[in-house]
TrEMBL record:
Residues 174-277, 322-349 form a coiled coil. This is Chromosome partitioning protein ParA. Keywords: Coiled coil.
């Protein structure tokens, strides 16, 4: 009995240098079930490709996805991407020898909530993931059954000459085959044009989102600059007020000096009158007046010079402050330009507005869609966030996760070791009771006795 080859499912792992591991799908399922571990992939996120291979070692479908491995090399137990369903429902991809394949990746995913777990293959010269897959499958290191491409030759004695009047039927068949080939080629061109149109639309949407984000950052920079300009204008008004006050003090000093001058002239007139009466008294009065006037003028001049000096110092300080504020404006403008280029939070908000969802998987809660306003709370304590979604406390959820991952008794034996008696797994955190669901019957009884005593 001859065994006929059929379509085979295979899984191939990629690293930075290319394909590093390949296996059949049953081996992959055994790895997901925890029967087989991969120490070489411990504590890594691997890029993986699921492919459907026909009997001639040609790829018919491909799904490019991520797979996380724990520190012990075991696969993530929460991984649950429906590879077969994605391979059947997705769109067309490149031709790898047997016509366009069915391709599922990040940019072409039929199920939106699985998009974040997929990755886009590269098609650059020298690093083409499709070429790597095609060449590795052609090597047939998995030992697949291959169907002969050419039919067995017909014996010479069985060959017969066809009548001459039927020779031209073959030409008609060739013409029909040529028309069919032209029709297929036209369909392929239409599909390629549609794919190019979709990619251009996607690029246009990304450019629009980037322009929107840049516009908002420019508006923020303009607001900050306007606020700083208002502060500078206020300082300049204060500087003008101080200059006006200094001018008034100078005018006041000039007026007082003029008053002293008038007083001096009056005193001189009185002295001249005294000179007429008595030269001696006039000389004494003159000396006394000169001394007093000199003291008063010197005191007044010293006082006003001190005030003018203080105002000059204040004006210099205002000028220096104005220079510092101008430098701060330039620094803030540079910072705004840097923020325009590197604003991760604005990018997250822009992605959220165009419909990108943030999801995380937690046992018992499944895949959680995290709103953007809850992202900070989730980052602070993912376990508490998942516990709140399940309607239980953080401690109950933590002990349930330990029980769910290892359903054994957590009680301690007299020797100090853990009991580890196998228990029935509680699938829901809400039905999990601390001290009962994670303990065997013997330790639950002992705990009740101790509680009762």
């Amino acid at each position: 009995m001859q065994i006929k080859p059929q379509t085979v499912e295979a899984v191939l792992f990629f690293n930075d240098s290319g394909i590093c591991k390949e296996m059949l799908y049953p081996e992959f399922e055994a790895m997901l079930d925890g029967l087989v571990s991969m120490p070489a992939f411990a504590d890594q996120q691997m890029r993986v490709a699921y492919v459907l291979v026909n009997a001639r070692l040609q790829i018919r479908a491909a799904v490019f996805f991520y797979l996380d491995f724990n520190e012990d090399g075991s696969a993530d137990s929460g991984w649950n991407i429906p590879l077969r369903s994605l391979a059947e429902r997705t769109g067309r991809g490149p031709d790898l020898g047997a016509g366009p394949i069915r391709l599922a990746c990040r940019s072409q995913c039929p199920v939106a909530w699985h998009q974040m777990h997929l990755w886009d293959p590269q098609m650059t010269q020298g690093n083409n993931h499709f070429v790597m897959l095609r060449d590795r499958i052609k090597r047939n290191q998995l030992g697949l059954l291959v169907e002969d491409e050419a039919p067995p030759p017909v014996p010479t004695e069985r060959l017969q000459m066809v009548a001459e009047d039927t020779w031209y039927a073959a030409d008609a068949g060739k013409e029909a085959a040529a028309r069919q080939a032209d029709k297929l080629e036209q369909e392929q061109r239409l599909k390629a044009a549609q794919l190019i149109k979709q990619q251009r639309q996607r690029i246009a949407n990304l450019e629009q989102a980037r322009e929107l984000e840049a516009t908002k950052l420019r508006e923020l920079a303009a607001q900050q600059q306007a606020r700083l300009e208002e502060e500078i204008a206020t300082l300049r008004v204060e500087l003008s007020r101080q200059e006006r006050l200094a001018g008034e003090l100078r005018d006041q000093l000039a007026a007082q000096a003029e008053g002293f001058q008038k007083t001096r002239e009056e005193m001189s007139r009185q002295l001249r009158a005294l000179e007429e009466n008595s030269r001696a008294e006039a000389a004494i009065a003159r000396e006394r007046f000169a001394e007093e006037l000199q003291v008063q003028v010197a005191a007044a001049v010293a006082e006003y010079q001190e005030q003018v000096t203080i105002r000059d110092v204040e004006l210099a300080y205002r000028n220096e402050l104005d220079t510092q504020l101008q430098e701060e404006i330039e620094q803030l403008q540079k910072r705004c330009e840097a923020l325009t280029e590197q604003s991760g939070e604005r990018k997250l908000e822009a992605l959220s507005r165009i419909g990108v969802l943030f999801m995380a998987y937690h046992p018992g809660a499944g895949h959680l869609t995290i709103p953007l306003q809850d992202m900070a709370r989730y980052q602070d304590n993912p376990l508490a966030y998942a516990a709140a979604k399940c309607g239980v406390s953080e401690e109950q959820y933590r002990q349930w996760v330990q029980h769910f991952q290892q359903p054994t008794c957590v009680a301690s034996l007299p020797s100090g070791e853990r009991c580890n008696m196998p228990l029935d797994k509680i699938d829901s955190p809400a039905r999990f009771v601390i001290g009962e669901s994670n303990c065997c019957a013997r330790h639950r009884t002992l705990d009740r006795l101790r509680t009762g005593s």
